[in-house]
């Protein structure tokens, strides 16, 4: 141990500096993408930052979007829109950033936002959804978690590979989700012989972990690292970390909720995700995976709209969308990390050697 207080303080400062270098804090760049605070911020300002590529969803019927309070709020206390066709049903509202953000080579990219959600008529313990297999006519039942019934969602999306990372925040629970959408959804014109085609062997939608939450607002963030791992934080606490992004969780032996199995080995995406887009919105996720995929008609399930809409809904607000890019730790950071390690080993040796 260092006995001189001045030397100890100096060593402390040096260690903090080395740590900052080693963890990349010295070079991390955080930008506020949208905090809805600019004087005169209007729906037109919102539309310049956010696009609705899949339409306005619930907002087609009653546009409750409001940016007058320094955040983005949306009220849909009773969902009205529903389709008995997979992903069309999921989007009660989605907006995606008009800007996309590069994943630094060898570094990481973090999206963060503050989310408040009030859920109506959801069942925190799960709701049984009834349907039938389209091909056989046999009955289908499954338990939908609260966030699947109604969720305020922040998405991190790579439109190129179809890889998504989502936070679903609901009434008294929230969950993390990882999925790779098939080309039949993202790019139906793509030929199955194209190397970029995502078929049933590469697609997956998996809920990682559900947690109990108190009343919001909650700070949700997702960090994707170019090395192929993703971490989800809520209010600064790590909730989920998944390595080998692109490989379904059940295929890589990761802990997961087990809601949706995968039907192939997946594809490791380390180094293959180059830019990501931020999304936010209101979702349901009541379907049976693989969501009426043309290659598995035997697994396609029909869930009547009367089962999809049971009076559930959600009011939500979003604020402080930030983007943090951390470049690859350079040789200085690696050197600093090495010095730090050597220093700590030396200190530990001294401590063990010291007489008691
Ligand atoms: Ca704000």
Number of helices: 8
Low-pLDDT stretches are: 352-356
What compounds are bound to the protein? calcium ion
**Global outline:** globular
Could you tell me the CATH topology label. Jelly Rolls
The CATH architecture assignment turns out to be: Sandwich
Query: How helix-rich are the residues, as a percent range?
Result: 10-25%
Keywords:
356 residues, alpha+beta, Jelly Rolls, eight-stranded antiparallel beta sheet, seven-stranded antiparallel beta sheet, 8 helices, 18 strands, disordered C terminus, binds calcium ion
Indicate the topology:
Layout: H1 5-22, E1 29-34, H2 43-49, E2 50-51, E3 72-76, H3 86-90, E4 91-97, E5 101-102, E6 108-120, E7 127-133, E8 139-144, H4 146-149, E9 151-158, E10 163-169, E11 173-180, H5 183-186, E12 204-212, E13 218-225, E14 229-234, E15 237-242, H6 249-252, E16 275-283, E17 301-302, H7 305-308, E18 313-326, H8 331-353
Antiparallel strand pairs: 1-18, 2-4, 3-18, 4-16, 5-16, 6-13, 6-18, 7-8, 7-17, 9-10, 9-16, 10-11, 11-12, 13-14, 14-15
Helix pairs in contact: 1-8
The protein binds calcium ion.
The site of calcium ion (CA) has 6 residues, from loops.
